[in-house]
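Ligand-bound model needed. iron/sulfur cluster.
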Amino acid sequence: MSHALHEPILDWYSAHHRDLPWRTADASAWGVLVSEFMLQQTPVARVLPVYETWLTRWPTPAALAADEPGEAVRSWGRLGYPRRALRLHGAATAIVDRHEGEVPSGHEDLLALPGVGEYTAAAVASFAFRQRHIVLDTNVRRVIGRTIDAVEYPPQATTPAERRTATTLLPTDADTAATWAVAIMELGALVCTAKSPRCVGCPVAALCAWRLAGKPAYEGPARRGQTYAGTDRQVRGKLLAVLRDHEGPVSQAELDAVWPEPVQRARALDGLVADGLVEPIAAGVYRLPGRRPS
Ligand code: SF4
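Prediction:
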């Protein structure tokens, strides 16, 4: 099955895609999995250096699984949402335990790994193993919303209707479907961006329902903002940075120094402990998480 959007988007991708290390022919399935964890909530430019460091230090799931979870958190650096580091460590451990250290190729096996949801399982099966899956991230959903449904932004959460449309759009041949998945994602990242789509020069401008309808304004519920300053998330980031920057344990006083407001600071620290990102080892002494007894 071919759709009118296929050829222009696949041709555009072939000429204009970025050479990202997790997309090269010699990228391992482990590299693809690591990149997908990192890219979930962090832009490519910030991911690149951490990805390189990470893959150099832990070139296989077994290498990461053999290290302490706290080292994963330390190496996560400032990518944000550091629970992803713990989940990636958990996924590496499960890959060693269940799959002899090889990232599984089956969608169900991928989905069963800690921290791997529907999107990540489909992305890894498609990008690393060239299988045919719908891979719906925010970029893809936006391009489909505009080109097919004539809306500026897709709904806040993925709907069954979006899945049906994405399935209809998926090329029949698995290898083409895998390229299609990354090509439409790249178009959303580079051309059909959220705030300023570059419709002039877009390969599907002549086919785009939203553009042809005169770009009607978005009418859905208010879209989530990205406030950060003053939030508990910011405090958590500051506290965790103290622990990352110390080789050994840190004292309460060292943590207290980075945020003046005691109630919010205590709440943020409690949250980090509850999430397993920080381990209290004595009264007022903390460290990054060590290995759990098996
Ligand atoms: S024409 Fe504009 S809105 Fe439509 S897909 Fe291209 S960049 Fe996006």
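The chain has a mean pLDDT of 93.
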